[in-house]
């Protein structure tokens, strides 16, 4: 098993459930050396609260048993036990001592992965996972044709770029223990016209959200142009905002909007 195999084994259950996936100590022991350190260092995994149950290894049943911490006495460290639920086995083996490290666990979730993607693509924005939403807005990337929104869909786990969706498992990979993202493919999607969605039904709220994102990306292009033109023509007396908005209205990024609309939305 390689480090990339481990990464894929984490992304798959997250995409299937659209939520948090936990990794136990026992699972991590099956991985290659340094895999856990690499996943923690890159933010793919983060520590989670200690487990409240463990898999019993006494018999072939391999039951999940609740754990019971017992405080130590006279300065001795506390100990952790599990009790078999089979009365006959209880009589034979008594309380089962559980090493404390077996309670350690970690988690991976869509929000973590969205932040990992943002870091790899140098997207500086506030990333939130809002309750009830099926995707997480990461931020905007700038292509040759302007800014486009980047989002992470939770289930299936796909990155949406400029209306195109691609599996996150196809984009993330490790190279010499460094986490990488296929930036070349993302840049291609940024500049590729989205295919027609056909007549598939889309809820009105989703349509409104899509229009809102497109408008925000357009406004950000106007703000970039405003800053550039204002640096070239710093005097607001000889080159007022109305003059700048008229210049922007002649550019492709205006998308047919009139100068007055541009003027109202072009300033940072």
TrEMBL record:
Organism: Thiocystis violascens (strain ATCC 17096 / DSM 198 / 6111) (Chromatium violascens)
Region (Disordered): 192-216, 249-268
Domain of life: Bacteria
Compositional bias ranges of the Basic and acidic residues kind: 204-216, 257-268
Name recorded for this polypeptide: Uncharacterized protein
